Amino acid sequence: MKEPKKNNFKMVDVHDVRDINQTIFLHLIRERQPISRADIAKYTGLRAGTVSAIVNRLIKNNFVYEGTEGPSSGGRPPKHLFINAESFYVLAVDIGVSDSVFAVSDFNGRIIQQKSLLTEGTPEQFLNKLADEIEKLIQTQYSRAKFGAIGVSVPGLIDRETGTVEISPNLEWKNVPLRQILMSRLNLPVFIENDANAAAFSELWYGPLNEASVRTLLFILVVEGLGTGLIINGELHVGSRLGLGGFGHMSIDPNGELCSCGRRGCWETFASERATVERFHRVTAKQGVPIVNLNDLITLANKDDEMALQSIKITAEYLGEGISNLVHGLYPETVVIGGNITAAWSLIEPIIKQRIHSRYIVSPQKIVIRPASVQRPSLFGAIPIALQNCFQTPLQLNKNPYKSRAKI
Ligand SMILES: [Zn+2]
């Protein structure tokens, strides 16, 4: 284990914020296990007594256990802390426009198993089918396991207090009581979040450790639509009660194409997966080219298909253009792009960077622009959303459920 740097992270001052600190401790232990209480005190800058009080609570709740596997410098081996990975499981669900995925994660945030199903039928039919599948999996393989919560990531405007999908233009859902349906079927607490927000959250848990002190991170989720999530001052920015997922519907051409939201020329109509594929089909339609999805398009581009290359390059231009505008206003330390488009990273990266730098008044040399740390960030983001809610009381949830590493 590496020697921890003192005050590597900033910490919430204790007392009545103990639940947030429990979550932060869990992150630290998960990432650095085996880790001693003294190391936690060094990392966080908290007093030894405070550290012990929080650790004791975690041990009492069976989230963490103490062992002696840590490095010893002779004499009595020091006690080290480990996550009790199997104390609880959580479920993560990522609802996509064409397919959805659900996963079982242990308390380390590691996916044990995942399954996908088509997103089809009415919302009620689909959610009941999803609940059937989850029930079947739990009954056959996890009948003895304890589940703490379900985190659900969904594209669109959500009401995180009631757990309702108010409107999702891409899913064509309206007023869907998602939490109510899943809770009544599965008898577990359900927490829902917009997919781009969940994706941004995934970086706090699965992103590079050396970015743990990043205060502002902008996540661009390029899927069927396009959404953005924002970490500000180390916390997921949730704004008011409703969250639609940021800047995807920022209009960049008032006379542009009609967007799924009913307005014209949204960023999404230029840079989403759908926009990229439609651009390709517009120029190839007459040549009898079969319908492709973005992954097919990337395969074609890798074979130097000129039309495929052009379609992706134009998307990269628009991504760069939009990011450039946002970077001007937000000046994040890190910009992360997620979605299938990142499989063409070597193709899009130079175009995006060039566009950002050429449009910037003072070139933003220090901004890191990189692909997402995980394959399906909106699924991975649903895991910590479920995990950390295992600690919180309903009262705290109504405030801001997303204070976590954030505060580290
Ligand atoms: Zn729109």
Task: Explain the layout of strands and helices.
Layout: H1 18-32, H2 37-44, H3 48-60, E1 64-67, E2 80-83, E3 89-95, E4 99-105, E5 111-118, H4 123-141, E6 147-154, E7 157-159, E8 164-168, E9 173-176, H5 178-186, E10 190-194, H6 195-206, E11 217-222, E12 226-232, E13 235-236, E14 242-243, H7 268-271, H8 273-284, H9 294-302, H10 306-330, E15 334-338, H11 345-359, E16 368-371, H12 377-389, H13 394-397
Parallel strand pairs: 3-6, 6-10, 11-15, 15-16
Antiparallel strand pairs: 1-2, 3-4, 4-5, 7-8, 7-14, 8-9, 11-12, 12-13
Helix pairs in contact: 1-3, 2-3, 4-5, 6-12, 8-10, 9-10, 10-11
The structure holds zinc ion.
Brief account:
This protein is an alpha/beta fold and 408 residues long. The protein is built from 13 helices and 16 strands.
The main β sheet shows up as: 5 strands, mixed
- How far from one another are the termini? 20 Å
Strand order of the largest sheet: 5-4-3-6-10
The 3D shape can be described as globular
Helicity level: 25-40%
Number of helices: 13
Query: What's the mean pLDDT score?
Result: 84
Please trace the helix and strand order, writing H or E for each element: HHHEEEEEHEEEEHEHEEEEHHHHEHEHH
CATH topology of the largest domain, what is it called?
Answer: Nucleotidyltransferase, domain 5
CATH superfamily of the largest domain: ATPase, nucleotide binding domain
CATH architecture of the largest domain, by name, is 2-Layer Sandwich
Unreliable segments of 5+ consecutive residues: 1-18, 393-408
What Rg, in angstroms, do the CA atoms define? 22 Å
Strand residue content: 15-25%
Oligomer: single chain
Domain unit count:
3
> Which CATH first-tier class of the largest domain would you pick?
Alpha Beta
> Strand tally, please?
16
Q: What hetero molecules are in the model?
A: zinc ion
